[in-house]
Amino acid sequence: MADKLTKILILNGPNLNLLGTRQPEIYGSTTLADVEDMCRTHAVKVGAQVSFYQSNIEGALIDAIHAAKGTQDGLILNAGAYTHTSIALMDAVFSVELPMVEVHLSNVHAREEFRHVSYISKAAIGQLCGFGAQGYLFAIDALVACHPGPQAA
After folding, report:
1. What is the Cα Rg of the chain in Å?
2. Residue 16 φ then ψ, to 5°
């Protein structure tokens, strides 16, 4: 059955390593480790396999996206502040031709105006924001439903 799992790489960008302590009034008290545990548990329930990568460095995130080509069925990307600045991340997602769901813990559209612009959304199949850590689980569900892995076709 392992070959039927949808393989999903969950990428987290700058400052997400500080979840749980960084601005809890905006981002909550859930840590990145908590998010990863939630995703692992949920993935088993829906027939997915998840792996994780976090970096504060744009180039490292790009390298991780490139490495996903041919090894993953989809991406979940919370690019943090790079969402609003990085054409390079957008180009990387386009270049690997994998379905990607953009996730944000807070509702970026209800925050400062500069956060309303997302370069990476142009490469996404959808965007989830404002649902806290639950957004990652919704993103897993979306990828499994829309892109059920290599053996499901």
Report:
1. 14
2. -70, -15
**Please, are residues 39 and 10 in contact by the beta-carbon 8 Å criterion?**
yes
**Domains of the chain, residue spans:** 2-146
Active site residue 119: no
* Closest to 125 measured CA to CA, from 151, 93, 95, 152: 93
Name the CATH topology of 2-146: Rossmann fold (3.40.50)
Task: For 34-51, give the DSSP string.
Answer: HHHHHHHHHHHHHTEEEE
- Other beta carbons within 10 angstroms of residue 33's beta carbon come to 12
Residue with tokens 């919370």: 78
Contact 8, 138 (CB under 8 A): no
Residue 27 annotated as catalytic: yes
| Entry pTM | 0.88
| Segment 84-131, tens digit of pLDDT | 889 999 999 999 999 999 999 988 776 778 666 799 999 999 999 999
Q: Which of 104, 119, 136, 147 is catalytic?
A: 104
Quick: pLDDT tens for 11-55.
999 999 988 887 777 767 789 999 999 999 999 999 999 999 999
